Amino acid sequence: MGKFLILFLLVTNYIYAAGEARNYNEQISFIFELSDKFTITEMGTLQYPEHDYTLYKISYGNIEGNGDASSGGKNYLFLSGLHGPETAPVYEIKAFMQHLDSIDLIDNVKIDFIYILNPYGFEHDLRYNGNGIDINRDFISFETKEAQYLIESIQDENYNGVYDFHEHGATTGLLLYVYSNRSKRLGISILESLQNNNIPLENNYVDVVLKARNGIISVPFYAKIYFMNLKKQATTGLYFDKIHVPEVFVIETPWRMEMEKRREMIHLFLQEIL
Question: Could you give the domains of the chain?
Fold first, then answer.
């Protein structure tokens, strides 16, 4: 009976994995059909034994003047796909780019999309990259090519907002990590608007000792010091806060919620940013 159960579970998992199979090149193919509102730039190629993956930066729009946020425009960085199983942001940000392509160009707004930074994880449904490393803990040592290519591709940018979209398996509502009072104020304003659209906010999740309140975890200075200086680990949020990007958000949708609702959360959030 025990052997039969193990065999059954193995076969079931295989069928599930096969049903969930994802192809990175197929998923990103739409970017080459975007209009000249977008510019596609190769960031670099990841080389793994079974497959190579080319990463791209997809840039929308432009800013007048000197080309950065100091000229009065809005210069944003949107990240998605750092963890393979977190697919709702990947699918919804694709729809968002296609929406931007279908309407008139928004004046004095530039958005860099780093779309699926972890293609190996995306294809294999893994949190980690092809070397077993969590990319979103690698923004101090920059051991991974994925993190290296990201930073190299944006080193000349002056962003006034960075938004990193993730999903969480232990939450039941939308959750924002914020890293400054300015981001917290903006986050509260955005979440109030989303609540008017019946979007649930997280209030129960505790990240070590930091408790979510009304959809927000505000990362204090001591936590930044602990992770950056003692644990020698940094997420995108910690990294971009350290280099003084004015508005930094990590957005977490509840992974256990149905896909349609998660995508709606992201869709409404994106609308509020612009």
Answer: 23-273 (3.40.630.10)
Digits of tens for pLDDT over the chain (274 positions)?
444 433 333 333 333 333 468 999 999 999 999 999 999 999 999 999 989 999 999 999 998 654 455 567 999 999 999 999 999 999 999 999 999 999 999 999 999 999 999 999 999 999 999 999 999 999 999 999 999 999 999 999 999 999 999 999 999 999 999 999 999 999 999 999 999 999 999 999 999 999 999 999 999 999 999 999 888 899 999 999 999 999 999 999 999 999 999 999 999 999 999 8
Is 176 in contact with 162 (CB distance < 8 Å)?
A: no
